[in-house]
Amino acid sequence: MTPVEAPWQPGVATRGFVDVKDAPYGALGNGASDDTTAINNALANANTDVYLPPGTYLVSALTFSASGVRFYGPGTIKHRAAATNDCITIPTTVTDCRIERITVDGNKASQTGNVNGVVIQGVRNGIANATVKNIAWDAIVLYGNGTTPQTSHCYATGCHVDTTGREGITLSCASGTATDAPLHCAIAGNHTNNTGSHGCGIVGVALHALIADNIISLPGQVPANTADGITGYNPANDHITVVGNVISNSANHGIHVGGNHLVVTGNTVYSPADEGIRVSAFPNSQPPAAKGATITGNAVYSTGGAPPSGAGIHLMNVSDATVSGNSIDTTTGHGINIENDTTAGSAPTTISISGNTISNIAQVGIRLYRIKQWSCSGNTITTCGSNGIKADDGSPGGAAQTDTGTISSNTINGATTQGILVAGSAQNIAVGTNAIRNSGTPVSFTSGATNTNSCAAQNTDASNTIASAGTLSLPLGIDTFHVTGTTTITAINTGSGFGGRRVTLIMDNGAPVTNGSNLKLIRNLPSRAGISLTLVCDTAGNWTEAARTATPISQELPTNALAETLPRILVQNQSPALASGTPFITAIELKEGQTISNISYVSGTSNSGNNQTHLWFALLDSSLNVLELTSDDTNNAWNAGAVKTLPLAASYTAPADGLYYVAICQVATTTSQLRGFSGSSSTTQIVPILNGASATTGLTTPGSAPAQLGAITAAANPPYAYLT
User: Fold this and answer.
1) Is residue 653 very low, low, confident or very high in pLDDT (cuts 50, 70, 90)?
2) Which CATH class is domain 465-551?
3) Poorest-confidence range of 257-266, 433-442, 504-513?
4) What is the DSSP letter of 180?
5) Comparing 465-551 with 563-723, is the CATH topology the same?
6) 3-state class (DSSP) for residue 36
7) Domain at 266-461: CATH architecture
């Protein structure tokens, strides 16, 4: 029969082709006759494409006996009942053999022994894009049996495995030691489902192995208590990379690996019965499970397992480890648990935990237990049933094993007990600045625990917006504060850990600051909205000015003023008289959070209003919508050269920085001129127009004003007005 595609080329110039149904082989493929001999004879042709046409071929055991053989389907190989050997074997005696696009049916219900589906040994042998199902024991095994050559560069890629008595796809070896471990082998792009134990991984030892881009679902049928999605926790493993896999509903851990030079990255684990990712030897009493572990960019969702199990990520007895950029959501145990168990000897060292996002944790967000020389920084932890971060050494009084660690720049929100707890006899723990909110106690050091950082308490459960007061109380852990209100500040609180602290105060509403009991200013800070002051606290509790917003004298506002239409030092002239009943509108800048209660204008020195019946002001947004109106001044006249201040009917707080307008409307026989600035008419038409009379005319009382004033007719002489 002619092949349906171009032949595979495994590095030889000329290849043969045989069809297992053709003479002299004569396989029948009827599902009843035994085709073992026919197919084995076909597989004895070196450098040949052996074609398995559609059909079901009943066999007792197939063995490749020549190198360079490609055995490809779409036919189905079915294992005979009560078979005593594995269904298909590629032995160590051949190289460059490949099984491709066939179906292997292990006839599981009819087997009486632990027979495997496909066993691959030797060099550069593999299986690709095949289906292996109903297997009594393991579906696909890349196997090192201790013979020469050592199994290496073998692979299982793109295969579908469904229903096994034990493993899905494994790297395995006879002795369980590195002497016969598979070398440079890969399990990649496969899908395993309903496996009796582990979905895929290492049973025994593997060296320089890749487990990548596999989809593992519903493992753990029998025995349920040992079924990891991806497994391989022998301490002799070396250079194992587990990347890009998706594991769902594993009956134990999602991923459980051990050994040296491990990389676990970019995997997604859903709903494991115990922990999401575990790095440790088994049992735990063996030597340190890993040295050189990188656990990055993984996502773990909804772990199970009763505490102390059920962690999102768990490292046991691991040194030289990095845990970063992982996302963990909803655990029954800790979010990240880095620990040394009590029987494993000296504490692991050199561990970095950074940039992880952890949320909805039943126990501790990040637990650090009996480890040395570590840092925990830049993590975001939200909602924990216990501590946000806990560095612990067991009971106090013993020899410290949790030693020389740093906790800084973490964000913790909603830790039930402490945001950060340093407990037991942990020592030399530096707790820097962390943002801690909605938690029990921000930071706690229990008896016996020590820290080395003078800013150890710089953590906060408070907002960065505070109200002005005679003695300003600054919560810990925040460096920049927005100060509301206008109460004069004469002192600032101090406390443990304040020495060396540097803070910046931004006066949103212009609260003044004056030299007081512990304030050491270059000069008093005037009342001006938006001005800032930077202070440093010394060990004696004095706050010394380090910097302030530059405020030229020409920009000083009137006392208690928040904004003005133009710097008052420029006021030199008076505008033409107002048009009776027509609002005159001028731009003004407001800052977010400024609360306006009054508007003030200054009349000119001549032509002051006579027979005035109405005078009122308005605050407008950038579209000339009326935000608030003042009361109506019905006095007969407005004296020349006088400030007129009218209160708004209700105070208005600016929702954002930007352009606003003030307007003045006077109804009088002879209207007033206003103090202001003589500008150039050549720039008045540039949009947005900043000054001029409204197109709305004929107004009387404030109640006569429409919701939006008419467009501005540009004018050159803006009046001076200010807001308080």
Assistant:
1) very high
2) mainly beta
3) 433-442
4) G
5) yes
6) helix
7) 3 Solenoid (2.160)
Separation of alpha carbons 429 and 452, rounded Å: 6
What letter does residue 300 receive in the DSSP assignment? E
Residue with tokens 């460096």: 479
Report the alpha-carbon distance of residue 373 to residue 477 in Å, rounded.
24
CA 581 vs CA 615, 654, 665, 693: distances in Å: 9, 27, 6, 11
- Please compute the mean of the pLDDT values over residues 665-685 and round it to a whole number: 82
Of 651, 358, 305, the C-alpha closest to 484 is 651
Q: What is the pLDDT of residue 220?
A: 44
Strands, DSSP E only, in 357-494?
Answer: 357-361, 366-369, 372-377, 380-384, 389-392, 403-408, 411-415, 418-422, 427-431, 434-437, 441-445, 459-460, 465-467, 471-472, 480-484, 491-492
pLDDT in tens, 255-285: 999 999 999 999 999 999 999 999 987 655 4
- Report how far residue 478's alpha carbon sits from residue 436's, in angstroms, rounded to the nearest whole number: 10
Closest by CA to 170, choosing from 209, 133, 215, is 209
The token duo for 12 is: 């030889």
Cα 494 from chain centre: 35
The CA distance from 242 to 187, in Å, is: 10
Q: Report whether 440 contacts 419 (CB < 8 A).
A: yes
Q: Name the token pair of 257.
A: 């690996």
Is 441 within 8 Å of 418 (Cβ atoms)? yes
CA–CA separation, 323 and 326 (whole Å): 7
State how far the Cα of 338 lies from the Cα of 331, in Å rounded to an integer: 15
Contact 312, 365 (CB under 8 A): no
The mean per-residue pLDDT over the stretch 143-166 comes to 92
CA atoms within 13 A on the CB side of 184: 7
What whole-number percentage of the chain has pLDDT above 70? Answer: 88
Question: pLDDT, tens digit, for every residue of 475-494?
Answer: 766 778 899 999 999 999 87
What's the average model confidence in pLDDT over 92-96?
96
**Nearest in space to 300 (alpha carbons), one of 360, 260, 351:** 360
Where is average pLDDT lowest: 16-30, 293-307, 543-557?
543-557
**Residue 708 DSSP code:** B
Q: What is the mean pLDDT of residues 78-96?
A: 97
Q: What ranges do the domains of the chain cover?
A: 266-461, 465-551, 563-723
Strand partners of residue 632:
none
In Å, what is the CA distance from 653 to each residue of 108, 509, 511? 75, 10, 16
Nearest residue to 227 (alpha-carbon basis) of 200, 263, 190:
200
Query: Any idea which fold 563-723 has?
Result: Jelly Rolls (2.60.120)
Residue 13 has pLDDT above 70, yes or no: no
Backbone angles phi, psi at 484, to 5 degrees: -95, 170
